[in-house]
Amino acid sequence: MDAPKPIGYWLKHLHNLLERQLDVTLADLGLGRRHWQILNTLARGEATRDELRAALAPFWTPGEPDLDRVLEDVTARGWTRPGHSPEGNLLALADEGRAAHADIAVRVDATRAAVLRDLTSEQYTETVRILSVMAGNVEADLATR
């Protein structure tokens, strides 16, 4: 008799599927999820490499090309430009990067819609809330050890 799989199984399984799904969605463009995450982060505003690294750190896993390598590819495509800072350490999306972001966002939105099919927005919101509470509980427990 098969026992129901625990939440850890479903979290890891879903994570792996989401990674693969987005990579497949972007493969014909020669892009992966990390490219999208860089574009999407910069679409919200200028950032330093360190800010990008911190924002994307939870998604990066060992064995993947590092941020600098993916960022080099994004920059080589003409999608980034220096930001507006006296120190010159900010990155921003160039016009070509904004256009690429908009085009890719259509694909990403369709992929997200497939993931959320048959779920209401309330169910999605509640799922995220529950996972957030569970993560907070684990963080609090680990802090006491």
How would a textbook summarize the main sheet? Answer: 3 strands, antiparallel
Oligomer category: single chain
Number of helices: 6
What is the fold-level CATH name, i.e. the topology? Arc Repressor Mutant, subunit A
C-alpha termini separation: 37 Å
CATH class reads Mainly Alpha
Radius of gyration based on Cα positions: 18 Å
Count of spatially separate domains: 1
Descriptive overview:
By secondary structure, the chain is mostly helical. It is built from six helices and three strands, in the order H-H-E-H-H-E-E-H-H. Strands 1-3-2 form a three-stranded antiparallel β-sheet. A hairpin with a 7-residue loop joins strand 2 and strand 3. The protein is globular.
